[in-house]
Structure formats: C-alpha cells, structure tokens
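Sequence only, no structure available. Ideas?
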Amino acid sequence: MGTYRISQLAQRSGVRASTLRFYEESGLLTAQRTPAGYRVYDEAAVERLEFISSAKLMGLALDEIRDLLQAWQSGTCSSVRSELLPLIDQQITETDHRLAELSAFAARLRSVRSGLSGPAPAGSSGPDCGCMITDSQVPVQMPAGIADLGVVDAATPVGGADADSPAIACSLGREELGERTMQWQQILTRARHRTELEDTESGVGVQLTFDNDAVLVSQLAYLIVAEQQCCSFYTFTMTVAGGEVVVVQVRAPREAAPLLGELFGQPA
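Reply:
I predicted one. Tokens follow.
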C-alpha cells in the first residue's frame, strides 16, 4: 500500500493542500507523521477524499459529512444509505426553497425591466423614475439569512453617498469560512475562463465565465448573495452575454488582493 506526502495526495486527489490541512483540523481526514513532522497519508485517505468530495457535491455540510464518515467506515452500504437519505431529503427541500426565492427575485427584476423599457421621465433620477423599488412595491419574502437583492439606481452608492468603505474582514467563523471556500472551489471548477480585470484606482478584480445553465446560475446567485453578507468589501456583477455564457466580475480593494486571489483562484 502506497503512502503520500501532502503535495502528492493533493495531486492524486485534485484537492488543494490547504483544503487537506483544513480537513485534518476539522476531523474529516487523518494523517500520520514522519519523525521529521511531515504528514503522510495512506491509500485509505484517497478513498476517504472521494467520499468527502461526493458528499460535497450533494451540498452536505462539514458536520454532516463527519457523521456520514463514521457510517462509511463501518463498511456497510445500508448504514450509509440510512444516514444519507434524510440528508438528501433536507437538501431537496432547501434547494426547492432557494429556487422559489430566486424565481420571485427574477419576477421582481422583470417588473423593473418592464418599467425601464418605457420612456424616461424628465429631470433627474429619483424614487418615481423607475430606477428604484421598495419592498412595499414588490413584496418578496426572503428566507432567513439571505440578503434582499433590492434594486436601486446604479449611480447611488450603497449606504448613501457618505457611506464609509466596508471593512476588509469576514464575519464567518472558521468552520463556516472553510465550507464557503469549498463551495466556491466547487463552483469555480465549472468556469470556462478566468481572467484578471484591469486594475483601477478603486481596486483589483477577476472575471469568470460560465455556461448559461439555469441551475448553475441559481447556485452562483445564491453564493454571491451569501458572500456579500459576510464579506461586503467584494463587489459582484453578473451578466448574460449573448445568451450562451454568464460573466461574473468580482472586484475588491487593493488591500484585499491576496484574499481575492485565494478565494477565486489564480489565472490558469
């Protein structure tokens, strides 16, 4: 049975070394240590990572995967199935809920677009010109923990003209941050292209191009909203180009360039 150093296991499994360390610290993966202190993994770690990756593709949380691994280690398919089935039922319910909320949001945007398609009123932009809406005008109930994607005039800074720049900090806990990073890593594997945006006085950015797939776009929108709640220094723009691809631009202040590169990867 072969053994692997962490770099070798990362290459064999396609999982980043930083993620392998996080898995170990979270109790999902175990490693032996050489006398010199280097991590060493056996072939069982490769199989364990395959199981973890499969569970992630099903949208399971780290604590759920940790519990599932105990059943998986027993070696009986029936025990894994009995643990997995209710988790999948829960994921289906939550996914249906998210899709319903995204559908409601799409209806809100179509209503805004319909108003914007007509003749513009004379004078400056304001509450009555169609560039702004409120919840009372188009009530859409958002689920707990999800930001309301209200539509405002693009010329108006978020928080008002005198709003302070958002702090370069993340409000997620350590385990939540690890899960969020893995969610981005998973969805970024489906990107067609990744390019650096031209640096500006306000900051740096990357552009990601994806296929225009309805489920993928829904996942992207949900993840972008969640990211904005914990890391408000990021600015996201998502557009559909030619009906075939979806382009996501992510910008951040210059001081956040290392965080941008770590979360959204380096250019291919």
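The longest helix spans residues 77-116.
Hope that gets you unstuck.
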